[in-house]
Structures are given as structure tokens and as C-alpha cells.
UniProtKB/TrEMBL annotation, chains A, B, C, D:
It is an enzyme of class 3 (hydrolase). It comes from the Bacteria. Belongs to the PurU family. It catalyses: (6R)-10-formyltetrahydrofolate + H2O = (6S)-5,6,7,8-tetrahydrofolate + formate + H(+). This is Formyltetrahydrofolate deformylase. HAMAP family: PurU. The keyword Hydrolase applies. The lineage of its organism: Bacteria, Pseudomonadati, Verrucomicrobiota, Opitutia, Puniceicoccales. One of its GO terms (molecular function) is formyltetrahydrofolate deformylase activity. Residues 10-86 form the ACT domain.
Length: 288, 288, 288, 288
């Protein structure tokens, strides 16, 4: 669609609603000889906040994204805008954390390698050593950092250090069974993506399939959400379900749940990687 | 499939698990010159309970279902069996209760009239008078029995009297917005079907679409369940969902929810009318 | 969301792709003191065509949509734009055509009356007289215009006359079992919406459920599409499916198909009524 | 559920319908001191054929499945029954054939290794060498057998020889892009499972995603079916779909199609491995 030699970038922004926002922004873009190739916008009627996501293609070969950004600054300021710009050709760096269940990890590694999910993968971190071989087969560094029940703080500090070293844009909890401490949630706000194996807000916390079996639901699900200080209560990015029957055991649910967990996590992660998500309060706006 | 002149019936039963149940029952059926045309069975591994549903067709024109039942009694007793037999040609009697939302009622009336949902409809009862015209167009008696906040007991007594007069096999709460009192739940145990407009156990109680909007879920749903003393906590019969987006308002959810409510309620009701549901504890076994 | 006293309208357009389209259009809108509250756009990479749909709210009480339109004309011309503007407060006029199956009609009438589907309904036309009572209960004029096998031309001419008299913006074939003649398709191009009871292109033509049963598919579906000269081959607007099993008879499929037909038709019709559909060649662009 | 030390087996059978089939079979099973723990049956109304699948658990430790089978022979004969018995503890042998697309293969290998899909995997065969590393990482023999355009017969003969050597119960075409010759289809009738990347009968043959893009459908799908002499026309086992939008490119469809292909293939294969499928004419009966 866009010429691969020319710069393509995403402008994601929110600001108090007022007339002429689109005009101001689009005129600025046109004045820099760039073209809006994809547009999403939403006006929240309650807070009267305006949200937008543009994919923009430069038309000149000598377009400078740095210059564009610094010149856009006063425009944004005049609109009281919170904004970010992402070069579409630069992949985000994602660190994956995992415990023992390997289906999400195996899925992400495969889709990453064939290029279906565009991210850089500096390393995988686990509180167990059991998935080292899988990760290393993909030539990805694997770090085993145990979380000791007696000294969780130290374990998380070591984990945080290793994460920081990797310099990620996003952290993916691909069935990482440790609860992230508040200070880590806070440090990487809206950058930690978790997959929870229930259709939240049903079955918060541990062993959701066991809870589902106990309640006798006819659907099980999965939820991809940003991690916040309150367990399984962060902004929901994506959800889906799968139908079960009375003769499905918990083992059957766990098996069938794998596909829906993978699908939901990969869709949610893709949204994040393509800068399609804006967070407002405890909810997400997704320009899909 | 089965000869319309010959008796067809459903045998639904549960008993402690042991060897030879199917043999005993099927030999008895064959000995009465009848044929099993549909079979469902399930063995609960925890309680070691056996559940079964047979659709049986008599092969003789002079087959007597009464005689069959009384002769089956000792067989069932020897297996410590709880059982019931339903003549497939006899429709169940259903009383529909409704408040102001008319989509479930309109759906049920239409599907009832064209024969898609096989039941007798002695009357519709509402705590409001607004849906009288719709019901009476179908030549169905409509009873307006208000539930006065100051004297709920009297209202429910009048409702219960009218229900009893109608002699229903099943009571359908088609968006009836009053909470059934425990004594009514108890009187018609596993015979009162409700449609709740959320994927339970999420969003129990009042205004689930408002709760869903607040939590920012990406799916809304509906649950058909038997009514018990505990609000929205009875055995779940059927559930389904519909996908929503960040720009869907509560009004949009309510509109889109109508289709899934109708679908889920009609599927759940059909299961009940065709004797496909067995209740075990707080869960349902559905032979679909 | 938008102030009910102020004009809100939809601008739907397509034009050859070039830089600055959004800028030109949005600047013009801002210059007339109006605000873009909803935006969809798409750039087709093959034909390099740009498609857009804006929902615009005027900010002044004395905004004139007529003046806006005539002043927009030269802007549009300079972009070689095909465009239309629709006042959001003016409902489209829809004529419904139906034969004997009543589920789509009953659904549309109910959703129309409660305001879920916003259209004017001047009349319902049928080649049978059997659904007169249902239509007249809603106080909607019903016209019985038989299509005689021996003289189809005369029947369609009479039908076309009655349609023309009603002056519809859209014609809904709600299980109308006669094939529209090419001259009628051509007269109302991209304004005749049909519901076909299969997931096209599977099972074109007559009796799709019978075809589905014969092929042994595990899903049946429905397709909402614009009617063109080639049978069941027009631009697809919406599709969905429902799962079936080996023991579902054709009658079971027809019953279960009703819900999916209704859902798909109403979603497709809503898209049309809200000016969300642009047709390109034989495909639709849907800004949902 | 069943005692792991005791024999558990599946009895799958079909015969002309008559009274007393269930009685005869279940009495025989009870007489051998075994218990029916799962039952599915279906009576085809057109051909008056009876289909059944029982899961049976022996109650004695010295139960002999060989003795049971030989003693059941005359019972089956008296019912003109076609039947087979499978020991539930013996996994089927599956040979996987693949070309260049690796998603189905990667999925099957992962689920096989963790035990989600119970089969023996003697080898993987490919007409390309590119997936050797992936297969060998799982310690599974990989055979590269090119299919030369100029001499397809020789290539298929070599493939058939290698398959025969492996002695499979089932052959899985996991995106194997060569058309199986009739003699191979015939040799392994109802034992070759293919995944086709469309919701058949739509888009038979090559490049179904390209066909889907051309037709402008709103859903893409996948179909798991038995391979027969007629291309993509064999008995359908399982199907599912995923929703797409006007701005999804063929590459997007291919990416999103992977999940639905994997899910549909693994469900269809599981049905086969658990002896849940009976084929009647060109349709499948699936006891799920």
C-alpha cells in the first residue's frame, strides 16, 4: 500500500473535544507532504474526550519523522493533546514472561519467527527452567529467575533488573503464574499484557477453569488485559470464548482453552504492537 | 422418523452407577416391543451417578404407555432410579411471565404460533398492562397482576394463584423484572426458566448491561438458567455472547443483546420442552 | 452525543487517491463550523481509490445543510469525488417485499416499531395474501400483488409501480421468493437488499438448506447482499453461520436458520440505513 | 473415570434398523461383565440405518478384548452389523504429510508432544526439505520425498511406500499441496484427513483465500474432511469460520486463517482418533 522506501508512521492522540481537531491535524500533515492512509477516531460522550489514530505515509523520500514530530509539538499543545508517534517500520521490543504452561509461549515463538507478529524479542524470562530448550531452539536468550516464596521481593527485583536490561516496549505475561507487584505494574503502566484464562470479570484469580467447572457454565473464555495493581481488573483489550459441555472435564477445558488463550493473546498483542489501543480510565479504545 | 400413529416417548432417568443399567433398561424396552431411537447417557465420575435419556418408539399400535410405566416401576426400583416418562406427542404447558421489555415475548409468541417451539400456552402474566395488545393478537389470555412495592407478598400470591390455575409444566420468565420469592422457586423447582442478560456469573443482579459498560468488557452475553432461591445463581442451561466495541453505548448493547437473549432463551426452553435437561446439584446435564 | 437540536449528517464519498484529501475535506468542514464526530476511511491499494464516511455535527443552530452541500460541490469536484450527504435525523424509506415465510418480516416489523431499526415504512408488498393480518396489525399498508407464472412481466410491472409510488430509498427482500428482473435490479442499483439463506457463494439458487443437507456441511449460514442481475452474486454486505449436527433434519436447519437470517439481514439493513456501505465493483466497504 | 488397570474400548457399528439392537448389544456387554460408560446412537430416517458408538469398560481384571470380539461376532452377524472395536489405551498411528506452510505441522507437533492429541507419530513426510529441522527437534523421523511435476507417479509411489512402511491408521494432510492420486485415496479410504482453507463447498481447489478476496465474502473458513477421488468433495468432518473485513488483505486472511485451520484440523483429527466418526455415503456422523 505505502511505498516501502518512504516513511510510514502512526500518530495516536487524545485531547479535550472541540471543533476543528481533525482539520488542524490533517492540514498539518498535508503541509508536510504526507498522506493519511488509515484513520480511526472516537469521541467519548461522557468525558467529551477525543481519541484518534492515524497511519500516515510520507510522500517525499527526504521526509524526516524527527522534524515532523518537533514541528507537530505546538499544534498538539494548542489542542491540549496527549500524543505519541511510532515509526511503522520500527518493531517494538517485547519481553515474554512464562511459568510452566508452554502453549502461549510456543504459539508466540512460532508466530514471531514466521513474521506474523512483528516484534523484537530480546529474551524470555521464566521462574522455572523447564522451557529453556524450546526457547533456545529459536535462538532466543532464556533467563531462569526463580521467585522464591520466602523472598518474593528479591525474585521480582532480579526479574525487573533483567527486564530493564532488555529495554522492552511491552512485557507479555504468557501464562506467568506470579502476581506482578504493584511497583512493577506502576513502572510499566499499560505496557504489561496478561492473558487470563476466563472471560473476566468471571473467575478472577487462581484456577479459573476449576471455578468454571464448579459453576457449571456452558462457555469458557480468555481475556487479554493490561496488568494493574488490582488482580485481573485492568483494562480489557480482547476476549473470546469456546463452548463446553457437561461431560467436559477440567482437563478438557484446559486443553480447549489453549486455542482461545492463544488467539486472544495474539490479537491483543497485535493491537498493542500496531498502536491500536488507547486506555481511558479502566477501559480500552481499540481502533481495529 | 417414527410412525406418527405409534406412541413415542422419552425416558429420562438417573441412578447410582453400576454395571448392566443399559442392558436392564434396553431389554425391558425391547421386551415391550419398543425401539430406542435416540440415546444420551453420562456417567458423572465424582458422584458415580448415571444419567440417561432415551427416546423410545413403540412398534405396536396397541402399545400402552401407562402399562409400560407401571411395569417399568420395579425395574427402576431395582436400580434405585429416579425417572420420568413423557409422551412425545403431548406438549408441555408453559406460562410466560413478562414485564415491559417485549422482545423475548414477541419472539416466543411468534415461534410458538408457527410451531417452532412446541408448547401449550394457557396464558401470559405481566406486572404491567403494556403488552396486552401484543398477547391478545395471538388469542392468548393476558393477565395483568401488578407487584406493588408496598405489598409484594400479595402480588406474588395473586401471581402464584393464576399460575396454579394454568397448571403449567414450565414457567418462563421472559424478562420478568421481579425477583421470584423463595417459596415460589421452591414450589416449581427446576421448572422456572429465566433469561439473564449477561454471561453469568459475570454481572449478577440489576442492570447487567450497565455493569458491562462500566467494566469495559469486549463481549456481552445472555444466560438461560433455572431459578433458585439465590439470585442468578441457579443451574445454567445455555449461554451465548455477542461482540461489542468501545463505541457501543448501553443502548447499543441493549439492542444487540436482544438477539442473543432470544436465541439463548429459546434454545434453553426447547431443551426443557424436549426433556433434554437433568439437574445435578447446581449444574445441568444437557443431552442435545 | 450530538446536540439533538443541531444538524448532524453523514458525508460518504470516494475519489482517486491523492495527498491532502482529508485535509481539504476537514478544513472545509471546520470552516463551516462543524465537527467530525465519527470517521472511517479506506484506501484500496489496487485501484488507488480513497473511500470515506464522516459523521459531522454542526456547531451552530443556524447551520444549513443545503448551503453546506452546494458549497462543498467545488471541493468535491476538485477531488473528482463521488459523494452523498444524508441528514442523520431523516430516516430512509424502506419498502419490504415478502412471500410466505414470515420470520424476517415479523422480526423487521417488531424492531421497526420499537425503534431499533430507524426507517420509514410506507408499505409491505407480497406475492401472497397470507401475511396481511400481521402487517396490518402494525398499521402498515399491505399490498398483495401476485406474480403469475404465465405472465411474470405484468406482475413485476405492477410491483414496480407500487414500489415507485412508495418512493423508497431501499427495498428489502425479506424472503421474497421471486427473482427480481434485471430492469428492476438496474433501476434500484445498490438499493435492493436480499437475505439469502446460505453462506454464499455456497448454495446459490433455490433451496439452499436442501443443498446443505445433501453436501453434509457442519455449518449453515445466511448472507445479506445487494441484488444484481446475476442471481445471488451481488456485493455481500454481511454473513454469519450457525453450527449444525448430523441429526439435524432440513426442518431443523430451516428453524435454526431463521435466527441467523434475521440477525444478518438486520445488521446489513442497519449498515445501509446508516450509510455505512460503499460498493466498489462487486465488493462492499463497510465502515462499522 | 474408568479404572486405568481395566480394559476400556470403543465399539463402533452400523446396521439396518430394527427393534432390539440396543438390547441385544447391551445384554451381550453386560453378560461379559462390562459397562457402557458413553453412548451415542443415530437412526438415519432415509436409509433406515442404525449407527452406534459405545465406550465400554470391563469390570474384571482378566477381561479379554480378543475373546469379547470373537464372541461378539455372531451377535453382530445376526444384526447384519458392520463394526469395529478399538482398545482405548492403544493410540492410533498417524503419518503427517506437509509441504511448505508450517503452521498446521507446528501445531500438531506441539499438541502431540504435550499429550493433547493422542497418537503415535512414526514419521513426517514432505515434498520439500524446509521443515526438517522443526520435525527433527521433536525427535521424529522426517522424509523428504519430492513430487516431480514431470513424474508425479514415481513421487507418489515413493510416498506410498514410505507411508506403508510406517503402517498408519490415519494419514494427516497438514497443508500438503499435492493432489492425492485416486489409487492412494482408494487404498486408505476414510483414513486420509485433509484440511482445506475454505468453508467448503465454497472455494474448491487452489488458492481459496484469493478466491475469497475476489468474491468479497465477510467470513473465511476451514474444512476438515476425508480425502476422496473428487477434489475437496469428500465427507466433511468439521468446519469453522473467522470474520474478516474489507481492509483485510490476502496476507491478513492467510494469517488469520492459520488459527481456524489449526483448530478445525485438530478437532477433526481428535474425532478420528477417538473413533467418533462414521461415514455414510458422502456425509459424516460425528458422536461428539
Amino acid at each position: 500500500m505505502s511505498d516501502p522506501e518512504k516513511v510510514s508512521f502512526r500518530l495516536v492522540a487524545s485531547c479535550p473535544d472541540q471543533a476543528g481537531i481533525v482539520a488542524k491535524v490533517s492540514v498539518f500533515i498535508a503541509s508536510r507532504n504526507a498522506s493519511i492512509v488509515e484513520a480511526g477516531q472516537y469521541e467519548d460522550p461522557r468525558t467529551r474526550t477525543f481519541f484518534m489514530r492515524y497511519v500516515v505515509s510520507a510522500l517525499d523520500h527526504d521526509f524526516s519523522l524527527a522534524a515532523f514530530s518537533s514541528e507537530f509539538e505546538p499544534v498538539a499543545k494548542s489542542l491540549q493533546m496527549q500524543w505519541r508517534i511510532a515509526n511503522a517500520s520500527e518493531k517494538q521490543r517485547a519481553v515474554i514472561l512464562v511459568s510452566k504452561f508452554d502453549h502461549c509461549l510456543a504459539y508466540l515463538l512460532h508466530r514471531w519467527r514466521v513474521g506474523d507478529l512483528p516484534f523484537e524479542l530480546p529474551c524470555v524470562i521464566s521462574n522455572h527452567d523447564s522451557l529453556r530448550n524450546l526457547v533456545e531452539w529459536y535462538d532466543v536468550p532464556f533467563h531462569h529467575i526463580p521467585i522464591d516464596k520466602a523472598n518474593k521481593q528479591a525474585g521480582f527485583q532480579a526479574t525487573a533488573d533483567k527486564i530493564e536490561e532488555a529495554g522492552p516496549d511491552v512485557i507479555v505475561l504468557a501464562r506467568y503464574m506470579q502476581i506482578f507487584p504493584p511497583w512493577l505494574c506502576s513502572k510499566y503502566r499499560h505496557r504489561v499484557i496478561n492473558i487470563h484464562h476466563s472471560f473476566l470479570p468471571s473467575f478472577v484469580g487462581a484456577r479459573p477453569y476449576h471455578q468454571a467447572e464448579k459453576r457449571g457454565v456452558k462457555l469458557i473464555g480468555a481475556t487479554c488485559h493490561y496488568v494493574t495493581e488490582e488482580l485481573d481488573a485492568g483494562p480489557i483489550i480482547e476476549q473470546d470464548i469456546v463452548r463446553i459441555k457437561h461431560n467436559d472435564t477440567i482437563a478438557d477445558m484446559m486443553r480447549q482453552g489453549k486455542d482461545v488463550e492463544n488467539r486472544v493473546l495474539s490479537i491483543g498483542l497485535r493491537y498493542h504492537l500496531e498502536d491500536r489501543i488507547l486506555v481511558q480510565g479502566n477501559k480500552t479504545i481499540v481502533f481495529d
